[in-house]
Amino acid sequence: MFFKPKKTPPKREKGLKVPDDFWVKCPSCQSILPNIDLEKTAKVCPKCSYHFRISAYEYANILFDNGIEREIGKEILPDDPLDFPGYKQKLEKYKKIYGLNDSSIAGIGHIDGIKVTGFFTDFGFLGGSMGSVFGEKFYRAATHSAKSRIPFIAVLFSGGGARMHEGIFSLMQMAKTTVGVLELEKAKVPYITVLGDPTMGGVMASFAALGDVIIAEPGALIGFAGPRVIQQTIRQELPKGFQRSEFQLEHGQIDMVVDRREMKKTLSRLLKIMTSSYL
Asked: How confident is the model over 176-197, as pLDDT tens digits?
């Protein structure tokens, strides 16, 4: 009697390993998506249009023809004025993870050939919170726009509001950024804000709400205090979709809701209209 030998499965090649971040699960429709495909759609789910949060540099590369061509305030480093426990360690940790000195970047770029100044916040770095470096970068970028007479665009993912680690120094940035917006207004330079998920706290209570045109991404949480805090305070059930961008559009808080994949085209059209008198 003869026995057929069992076939041994082919050996896997050594060294082949799927990276941990190769697959991403959409929080909205639960679809499993390859990260490489998401990058082609500006980190928007191709199945349900859920907008993933993205980094400041990623957004700058989506909007600007050649990314940020010259950064403003890159050399400014955060300080620890209150000697807040663990703050220096947190700053060092996030610098290594995200390659940023703080929660924002600012710089010069072009949108369809139109020169603009951009300010971008990064939710990954301490919730995109507002500290002294944040305010100084915004003010420098805004005054550069005012003097150079080029449009200013702020793209925001900031859920942290004023950064508690810097106390009153952080709260002062609400006034400082507002003064930057006033400089733009005096120079009659267009100022557009793009609000991502989330845009809350001191950021929304200052410069984010002062744009000549205020655009929001779909489903973004926008406001000062969050829905849970409000509901616990007033002890009433809140309307469905409360504080989301569609709700804010319906109630006149913002001017339009735009899909990220259409954001550059929309901004280009607005800039051509708003700069037609002096460009």
From this structure: 999 999 999 999 999 999 999 9
| Position 151, amino acid | P
CA nearest to 44, candidates 267, 220, 260: 260
- Inter-residue contact 197 to 28 (CB < 8 Å): no
Enumerate residues 6+ apart whose C-beta is below 8 A from 242: 227, 230
Supply the pLDDT for residue 278.
Answer: 62
Burial class from Cβ neighbours inside 10 Å (0-12, 13-18, 19+) for residue 171 reads middle
Cα–Cα distance measured from residue 132 to residue 81, given in angstroms and rounded to the nearest whole number: 10
Distance CA 148, CA 258 (A): 28
Residues of each domain in the chain carrying CATH 3.90.226.10: 53-274
Largest interatomic CA distance in the chain: 98
Q: The tokens of 119 are what?
A: 């300010």
Fold for the domain defined by 53-274: 2-enoyl-CoA Hydratase; Chain A, domain 1 (3.90.226)
The single-letter code of the amino acid at 79 is D
Give the tens place of pLDDT for each residue, 195-220.
999 999 999 999 999 999 999 999 99
Length of the chain as a residue count:
279
Does residue 70 carry a pLDDT above 80?
Answer: yes
- Find out whether 153 and 115 touch, Cβ atoms under 8 Å: no
User: Sign of the CA dihedral 21, 26, 30, 33?
Assistant: negative
Residue 221 per-residue DSSP state: B
Beta pairing partners, 215: 194, 256
Q: How many CB atoms lie within 10 A of CB 56?
A: 26
Secondary structure (3-state) at 212: coil
- Look-up: residue for tokens 């009153």? 168
